[in-house]
Amino acid sequence: MGIWKLPDQPTAESATMGSGTPLSSVTVFLFECALLVFAQFFVGASGYEPDFLYPLENITVAQGRDATFTCVVNNLGGYRVSGDPATARVAWIKADTKAILAIHEHVITNNARLTVTHNDFNTWTLNIRSVRREDRGQYMCQVNTDPMKMQTAYLEVVIPPDIINEETSGDLMVPEGGSAKLVCKARGYPKPRIIWKREDGGPIVSRGPASTSKTKPDRVTMIDGEVLTLTKITRSEMGAYLCIAANGVPPTVSKRMNLHVHFHPLIQVPNQLVGAPINTDVTLQCHVEASPKAINYWTKESGDMIISNDKYIMNEMQSSQYSVQMRLVVTRIEKSDLGGYKCISKNSIGDAEGNIRLYEMEMQAKLDSSEESDSAIPQHAAMDIDGVPELHNNGYQRSLTESDEDIPIAVTSSSPSSSGNRVGDPTPLVILLLAIVF
């Protein structure tokens, strides 16, 4: 073993001086102490027994990264292996396969990704570049003492999640009221957890099997599992769904799946009767819901399709994935523009139409005379947005009162300046009486 072995020590009974005189017990004790000190001094001169300064640490590393094991051994330089003139050495071994990887600084295994370094003192390092899944396992740092000394550590190789496209659903098209099954498979180590979310942040509607007694569906923001089942689908559930796979090893990955819900067009008309004055512009509107995307257009009551030009301006504003707002602007309305209009929507499933009637609305009359003051306007008369009394049939609609100073009424007056005979004038009666008396 290279450890100094002490000679057989004399006992108190057999130990004698040169003359054969027995030694005292005190003398024997002092002799034994001297031998022990000498042995310790001699062993120290030849090197202490090797020992590990720090434990070998377990390592967890992502696939494709580098892994490093560090083994620190003291007192190795002066230690001689029993029966071998060479000093003790450090070796790296794959414990589960019992394969020797390296001895001292020399790599034994035929693996170009393994290297061993030594700092010329007490530290040996095993480096594994671009770690693979098969590299995982128990690694041993061993010193060839007798008995052998060693310490072990485990290399865990984790793999970030990866979605298996071949086993994962793509975009899906279903009729409204039907069912859909979305599947998402992922690999990685540890096994990835899969969750489902809607891209727009909306709720996922879980209605459960038809055989259950549940009457109200659950609305959740997230669902766990490789399979997402949707039943009795409505158009509001249309959109992009995200399959997200994570196992604690970055990066987290996801796949986007579009769920298309097909239904025939539906048209809603906010105002079916629209009035506007001649020579003004008016806007007609229809709200359309359809999937797949529909062809939308306008016609007149006669069936003639309306073409966009200086007279008619048409545009569409997208409200959601399946709804648009149709707008038709009729500019500088003429008598010939009055009548019925239709908004029509058609897709591969069906069609729908909405009807709007355009009629002439007279301009509100305004007072022409600038001589009339604000006091001539009764307080109870209705005002329009310009502060002008609202007129109906070119006149005011109101009752007559004594406070209406601007309207003449029958009164009695004795004013000599009044021309003509007014009701209640006393002058003709006085003349008649005087004629009878005289």
How would you describe what is shown here?
The protein is mainly beta and 438 residues long. Helices cover 8% and strands 38% of the residues. The protein is built from 2 helices and 27 strands. The strands form 6 sheets. Strands 11, 14, 17, 19, 20, 22, 24 and 25 form an 8-stranded mixed β-sheet that branches. Strands 2, 4, 5, 6, 9, 10 and 13 form a 7-stranded mixed β-sheet that branches. A hairpin with a 5-residue loop joins strand 9 and strand 10. The N terminus and C terminus are likely disordered.
Largest sheet data? 8 strands, mixed
Computed Rg: 54 Å
Mean pLDDT: 77
* Silhouette: rod-shaped
Q: Structural class per helix/strand content?
A: mainly beta
Order of helices and strands: HEEEEEEEEEEEEEEEEEEEEEEEEEEEH
In DSSP terms, counting alpha (H) and pi (I) runs of 4 or more, how many helices? Answer: 2
CA distance, first residue to last residue: 182 Å
Number of strands: 27
Helix content: under 10%
Question: Into which percentage range does the β-strand content fall?
Answer: 35-45%
pLDDT < 50 runs, ≥5 residues:
1-23, 26-46, 365-438
